[in-house]
Amino acid sequence: MPLDQPILLKRIPTPPWGDFHDRKYVGYDDYVKTDGYAALEQCIAMEPKDIVEQVKAAELRGRGGAGFPAGMKWSFLPPLDDGPRYLTINADESEPATFKDQVLIQYDPHLVIEGIAICMLACQLDTAYFYIRGEYHHHRDLFERAIAEAYDNKIFGKGSRMGQVNGRDPNLYLHRGAGAYICGEETGLIESLEGKRGWPRIKPPFPAVQGAFARPTIINNVETLANVPFIITNGADWWKGFGKGRPDGAPPTVPASFGTKLMGVSGPVKRPGVYECELGIPLTDLVADFAQGPLDGTEIKAYFHGGISMGVVSQEEAEAGVEMDFDIGKKWNNLGLGTACVTVIPESVSMVSMARNVARFFSHESCGQCTHCREGSKWMYQMLSRIEAGDGTTKDLDLLLELSTSMGSMPGHNICGLSDGANWAIRTIVNKFWDEFESAVRKPGGVSLAVLGA
Ligand SMILES: Cc1cc2nc3c(=O)[nH]c(=O)nc-3n(C[C@H](O)[C@H](O)[C@H](O)COP(=O)(O)O)c2cc1C
Ligand code: SF4
Fold first, then answer.
1. Which residue has the CA at smallest separation from atom 5 of ligand 1?
2. What CA dihedral angle connects 187, 229, 283 and 346, to 10 degrees?
3. Each residue's pLDDT tens digit, 338-388
4. Distance from the alpha carbon of residue 336 to the mean position of ligand 2, in angstroms
């Protein structure tokens, strides 16, 4: 089914369906006028397990980066007992050059809130915490306004429609982060929510079993939850008509890339922004058709296709057919789709400088609990700085690759995925742009000024 109308962005059109300047906050009344909260009403009449089954049948995969199936996660909760159960919504949006969730948060917050409410009904949760990136001041104010509207209209609180059905008084609170990348990692987020330092936890136990305040907790990304009302209203088969299914003959155990996805494009392009596309769109089409191609006179060299921690794809790979789906990692030797927010890297940028900058980010953001991550990212940054300055040797390049591999997700090495993200980012940049690194270590004086665009 072709995507001739946006789904997730239907109330907040973006080009080619509208103009950025048309965007305005969709309040409760306008939301309801455009079928808002109809899916929640539908769910109120359903058994919780049937809601979970519908999301499972849709094969909705998490939009926060890892692509874990949402319905399956919801079914991991232990049986009910007398204690509270929580939902935490990941609105930390901390991956560099990722800015897709903020569009939903500030323009169509009730869509997110409806998804939250449906998840709470389905999983029989009492309280939801909306954990928002510290820098999102304006978004926070708008989302607080939407939460107040939802309480006024009995979506939450005493006497809510949901409460009348299941005897719970559901509550939704906003919690501000303080700007640390690691607090986007789900257990770092939970620690931070509990008022502690945002240090990721060793898993298991997974949050569904023992999460916030040591109670069962579901954690989902903003965009993941925003998809749920549409899946409820239109059904799993409708949703699976979008995106990319399994290859012919593949068993249902092979994960697919159904549905649409918010994709950001930034860098030197004519129309940077957030677009809704079907999963599987060729990367070159996303950049050419939606972002209207590179700025005049700009040649594209590479892309961060899903945030920096997924690694890079080169322009040659993109032209050979890179598609934006959950299989991108397996096919094009990177970590995965990540946030699907693309940064275009022009020819004028030195990949050595880029790698040094990326390593600096990871070194700065590592929480320091694991030796490979803490020491490795710092060492990587120091080596890349040396190479960039012209003091590196060919041996340094081998050492750099060996070091980044040791930071990968080997069992028992690291508590969370940050270290592996650093590994993939640096490894793909070095491997795919080896010539630039080789000439940097061979050339006295470091990175060539021509490569730097001077
Ligand atoms: C270092 C690190 C940072 C992360 N940052 C975010 C983030 O900012 N937002 C997000 O939704 N998920 C982030 N994640 C992924 C979360 O840990 C988790 O997988 C996600 O919130 C689950 O939601 P989903 O299943 O709906 O995608 C991050 C993971 C890692 C390892
Ligand atoms: S991998 Fe890095 S960021 Fe993650 S817990 Fe270990 S030290 Fe902290």
1. 184
2. -60
3. 999 999 999 999 999 999 999 999 999 999 999 999 999 999 999 999 999
4. 19
